[in-house]
Amino acid sequence: MLRNLNLDDFGIYEGISETIVTTSRGWAMNAAPMGIIRRKDKLFMRIFKDSTTYNNVLSEKILVANVIWDPIIIVSATFSDLNDSEFETVNFNSRTFVSLKKAQCWVAFECTNTKLTSESLVTELVPVRTHINKCMIRAPNRGLFGIIEACIHATRYRLTNDGKYLKLIKAYGDIVEKCGGENEKEAMNLLYSYL
Q: Which of 41 and 103 is assigned the larger pLDDT?
């Protein structure tokens, strides 16, 4: 456990911080968008059953939360497998885990006090290692946040086939078109291709 760690320095604030979580089991590497829930200095994550992340966390008891501003990676990690070249392997205290090369920073967490439900697992997160790749000063871009929201609604649409999610995706797509840069617009087009 890292003592005196200020999670704010790694972009993980009170509430739900959206990250790309990387896990591995053997040589198989996985990335998926997931929110870290922070209440005071307690950290939790809810991981839905039958996902690769769920199985990897049950097996390995470790995950890495990557803070990333790349909209293409956010969409790709939501709907497909990333190429192995997007990952890097880290060895620490006789453990191996993976992170994303393009992450601004990451925090590796040990998963403890895991509780299983019929739909998911809820695990407490204890930080064990951190790394900063790039110190980026960047003002919030509504286009990037529109991509994140559109990805959330697109996963719900794929699960339920409910048209209300298509309307929400379109609304966020309009924000991306109005406020996003070229990368955000390209990411939105990629998202539409997965629907």
A: 103
- Identify which has the larger pLDDT, 137 or 91: 91
pLDDT tens-digit map of 103-134: 999 999 999 999 999 999 999 999 999 999 87
7-132 and 142-193 agree in CATH topology: no
Closest C-alpha among 142, 110, 113 to residue 126: 110
pTM: 0.92
In one-letter notation, the amino acid at residue 20 is: I
Q: Domain spanning 142-193 has what CATH number?
A: 1.20.58.290
Domain ranges of the chain: 7-132, 142-193
Q: β-pairing, 42-48 with 28-39?
A: antiparallel
**Span 7-132 CATH architecture:** Roll (2.30)
Which pLDDT value is given to residue 1? 64
